[in-house]
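A quick aside before the break. I want you to see a complete sequence-to-structure record at least once, exactly as it would be stored in a machine-readable document. Don't worry about memorizing anything.
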Amino acid sequence: SYNELRFSAGGVNNSHVVINTSGNVGIGVTNTSVFNGVGGNSKLVVKGSDSSTDILNNSNASITIANDDGTASNTSALHFARADTDDNPHYAGASIVAQFVETQVTGQYPKGQLSFLTSTASNTAPSEKMRIDSSGRVGIGTSSMGYPGYADNLTIADTGNTGITIRSGTSNEGNIYFSDATGTGTGTYAGYISYRHAIDALNLATTAGISMTINSSGNVGIGTQSPAHDLVVQNDDGPIISLIGHNYNDQMGIVFNGGDQTNASSNGNTGAKIMSQLSISGGQVLGDLTFTTNSG
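That is the input. The structure line, written in tokens, reads:
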């Protein structure tokens, strides 16, 4: 005696569905025990056998939720709920919902997108928090993706402050890589932004090499990773700094001033400055240099 309810086909020894004394259901299996961090039993276990390693070709170890209505934009879903205190009804706290965008055409795969819903507060029905649309674009906090074709693969939105956190080990790096290749070559890190927690330095890289560093003192190094001053520009061929105005008759320069706001250059106070006044004559840009100091 099994003390179980078994449904068989092809002989009594071929149990396809089993309901045990705890009410647990096994399809293709009699044992409903599961280890998911701690041991226990699942109310439903479905067992199959499929040796295929192709994620597009799994069939014998799978569960399908099908909607036989072919209406455009209808759904199939999996809801995670708690029973009410009187077992009537069950209130969902989270859901995974597939939406089929277009009207079903006989013999064709439906165009679909997947939404993830959670309840944000007590006595609040689940609402959409993340969507994977039919193009594979991901929206977190939004179903309206970013600028098409350039910045729409991942969109994060909120009505308030919005951000992304990359948390690394205290002696490790947090990175964003820009790649146009696969494998391990330089094309996989052609450009990147890297924060080195061990020395608290931010690096910006181009052509797979560091081009600019902001160190823990806030010093900026262009062409060097060890800037000893506020701004250090290093180039083996001789560094050049260009100031380019909007018009040919612009005035531009470098102003030297202290940090006291009462003596700031915006108040008409300048310690010293180097200025250039541009002009154009005969198709040529002309310019001069003026050196000014404030002796008090």
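Two observations worth writing down. The first strand starts at residue 5 and ends at 8. The mean pLDDT is 91. We'll return to this after the break.
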